[in-house]
Structures are given as structure tokens and as C-alpha cells.
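stage 2 :: seqdesign
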């Protein structure tokens, strides 16, 4: 006999998705990530897996991130709010965006500390976060292999593709 055990996070996700009142073909939002999908056409199991992964990453970050950090934001809107907040919340926002690009696979992503130090080493002038002296002291700048000009980390193959795209764009300009 096969056990149908669900983790507490999976139970929360099931409960959240059960509250969606949509008809087949209607656009709706993932209640955890806020990503849009079409009810009855897009596989719900995929949306639930993404929600579970995001909540597990948030739980992981609560244990492994800085003690004074806010919760890991999961929706695009919350990530952008954090990034615009600056300070530690800003760094958490950049980290969350980077982590979401890997579907919240925390084991494949650099640690928060390594990511924050890599972010502080960037000198794009686009965000200004790298000029925050308190953050520089807390996260001494250190180049991070795979950190893109867009301030997210990418695995080696994706990083090479991203950088080639940047080079093509600058050559065309």
C-alpha cells in the first residue's frame, strides 16, 4: 500500500489553491507566487509544485538567512517592493529574484552571504545599493562568478549565454 503523506507546506498549498474560484479558461493567480495561469488549461500540479518550492525556500531562508532579515518575498510585486526599499530588505529582494529564476532550488544557488557580497561588488550605478556603506561593511564586496549585470546569479551555461547576449546587444549599438 502506498502512503499519501503530504508535508505541512503541501497541505497549506492545497488549502490555498482550494480557495481559487475560477472556471475553465479563466486567468487566475498562484496564491503563493502570484504568477498567472489559466484554470483548467495550465496544469495545476505545476503551479502547486512552484508554490511548494517557493514556500520551502522561504522556510529555508528563515533558518539560513540573516536573523534580522525580513521574510523572503515570493511574488514579483513583493520582490520589487523589497528591492526598492534598499538596505537589508533590498538585498533580500535581489536574492529572492535571483533564487526565483532557479525555481527556488536553494541548493543550486550561492548562499545569501556570498550573493550579498557579489551584489555589493557590482558597480553598475543602476540600483545604488552598492553605495550603502552599512551594507558594504556587513557584506564586504567580493566578485561572485555567475553574477550577471542584471544583478542575479546564473549557473555557468546560462551565465555564458547571458553574457553573449549582452555582448551582441552592445556590438549592435
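stage 2 :: out
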Amino acid at each position: 500500500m502506498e502512503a499519501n503523506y503530504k508535508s505541512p507546506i503541501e497541505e497549506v498549498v492545497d488549502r490555498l489553491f482550494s480557495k481559487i474560484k475560477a472556471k475553465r479558461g479563466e486567468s487566475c493567480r498562484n496564491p503563493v507566487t502570484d504568477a498567472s495561469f489559466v484554470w483548467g488549461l495550465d496544469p495545476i500540479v505545476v503551479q502547486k509544485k512552484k508554490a511548494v518550492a517557493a514556500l520551502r525556500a522561504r522556510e529555508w531562508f528563515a533558518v539560513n538567512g540573516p536573523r534580522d532579515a525580513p521574510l523572503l518575498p515570493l511574488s514579483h510585486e513583493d520582490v520589487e517592493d523589497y528591492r526598492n526599499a534598499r538596505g537589508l530588505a533590498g538585498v533580500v529582494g535581489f536574492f529572492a529574484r535571483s533564487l526565483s529564476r532557479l525555481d527556488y532550488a536553494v541548493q543550486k544557488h550561492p548562499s545569501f552571504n556570498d550573493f550579498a557580497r557579489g551584489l555589493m561588488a557590482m558597480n553598475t550605478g543602476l540600483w545604488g545599493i552598492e553605495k550603502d556603506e552599512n551594507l558594504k561593511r556587513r557584506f564586504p564586496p567580493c566578485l561572485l562568478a555567475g553574477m550577471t549585470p542584471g544583478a542575479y546569479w546564473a549557473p555557468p551555461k546560462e551565465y555564458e549565454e547571458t553574457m553573449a547576449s549582452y555582448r551582441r546587444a552592445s556590438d549592435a549599438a
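stage 3 :: structure notes
- The chain has a mean pLDDT of 92.
- Strands lie at 27-29, 36-38.
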